[in-house]
TrEMBL record:
Protein name (Swiss-Prot/TrEMBL): Prephenate dehydratase
SUPFAM superfamilies: ACT-like (SSF55021), Periplasmic binding protein-like II (SSF53850)
All residue ranges annotated as the ACT domain in the record: 202-279
Ranges where the Prephenate dehydratase domain occurs: 4-187
GO biological process, one term: L-phenylalanine biosynthetic process
Pathway annotation: Amino-acid biosynthesis; L-phenylalanine biosynthesis; phenylpyruvate from prephenate: step 1/1
Record site feature (Essential for prephenate dehydratase activity), residues: 180
Keyword Isomerase annotated: no
InterPro entries, alphabetized: ACT-like_dom_sf, ACT_dom, Chor_mutase/pphenate_deHydtase, Preph_deHydtase, Preph_deHydtase_CS
Amino acid sequence: MERTFAFLGPRGTNTEEAARLIFQEKGNRFLPYRTIPDCLEAAAAGKVDYAVVPWENSLEGSVNLTLDWIIHKIDLPILSELIMPISHHLVSAKREEPLALSQVTKVLSHPQAVAQCHSYLHEHLPHAEIEYVSSTAEAARLVSERFEEPWVAISAMQAVHVYPVTLIAENIEDTENNFTRFIVLGKKPLPFPESEKYKTTILVTLPSDFPGALHQVLSAFAWRRLNLSRIESRPTKTGLGNYYFVIDIEQKMDDVLLPGAFAEMEALGCQVRFLGTYPVFVKERNGARISLR
Ligand SMILES: O=C(O)C(=O)C[C@]1(C(=O)O)C=C[C@@H](O)C=C1
């Protein structure tokens, strides 16, 4: 059965690698979209079956654009998560004389990628301007097109195979512990194999004027011994100081514990929105295959 996947493009992004890794079966089609909102809207409008987007990085934290779009703009369940190691590389346009770092005037990349390479940039390219673009592959594409400019891009290794660029420096991320979580969203369920690890993600809005509401919410999980792996607050966009809490619970939706916790929060006056219950897949660094954890 043919399935279509929107990914943050153009060709050669980390998101494309994540999408192709998790959906390796023949017949799947992967379509590049220019921005994260474009990917999510394509899946929401049924132009593609699924969207694959980044949503958290181990060095830089949440990809706020993904969170905000899921919260405010669309209503698509999260169907799975892939955790993938990320390496960044410095590339320039192919040129006769290799570009010396001292000649570089501008570094282009995605804001998350730049943030994951601050130490390298501080040490080796303190003189260069930083320009944020929509993805790491877009940075490589632009640098290759403007080959007369002394510009470099921070991009993934796949981009080196897609665009006419040369590697200048490899693995420039601040630490080896650089992992990004990608999620798959879509209306139709996907037949994933059983996994040892599942998560459930919810969005909680606290009642106003309720001192200690967050404490009460957390205790609804604590006394049921439900493990939380992330609590992220995002503005509701209704006024300064109003927040949603995105909460990842380390287990699959069940019939007893989670419905009980949600009912308890609702009884406190909280609004609870279910964002998905899904298997987690992990690609180990240097691991040829993804494993289930
Ligand atoms: O630009 C890319 O290659 C992406 O896939 C985006 C993205 C991100 O938004 O976090 C994905 C993984 C890395 O953390 C850096 C950039």
